[in-house]
Specification:
This protein is mainly beta. It is 7% helix and 29% strand. It has one domain. It has one helix and six strands. InterPro entries: ConA-like_dom_sf (IPR013320). Pfam families: Laminin_G_3. It comes from Adineta steineri.
Length: 123
């Protein structure tokens, strides 16, 4: 997950030798926004903004890269170079464009339902 040069949120997934991505909206500045992404082989990659479904990719089977996967939160991607793209295999995500706070972060062992996501976004 990252941002494009125009400020749109981008969610990515990896399939074999290619990147699967969803390009989302430009999020408002100085406003808390709940962003959730889910993945399953049935429902593909999905993006939710403030508990509401935004968009999804076409279905794909996740294929591991065979290397360590790095998850970076609020840190410039340039710290972990990958083929000159700043540590991200998506050419669409621009390093160093996020300047804000992260209040909560979670990783789940299952795909969250839209009900789960709505409950998390609206406690």
């Amino acid at each position: 997950m990252g941002f494009s040069s125009s400020g749109q949120i981008i969610v990515t997934g990896w399939h074999s030798t290619s990147n699967v991505q969803i390009v989302g909206p430009i999020l408002p500045a100085n406003v808390w926004t709940h962003v959730t992404t889910t993945y399953s082989t049935t429902n593909a990659l999905r993006l939710y903004i403030n508990g509401t479904y935004y968009n999804s990719s076409s279905a794909f089977k996740y294929v591991a890269s065979g290397t360590v996967n790095i998850l970076t939160l609020g840190n410039p991607l340039q710290a972990v170079p990958f083929n000159g793209t700043g540590g991200c295999k998506s050419q669409s995500i621009v390093p160093n464009v996020y300047d804000g706070s992260i209040d909560e972060f979670g990783v789940y062992s299952r795909e969250l339902s839209s009900y789960d996501i709505c409950a998390l976004a609206n406690p």
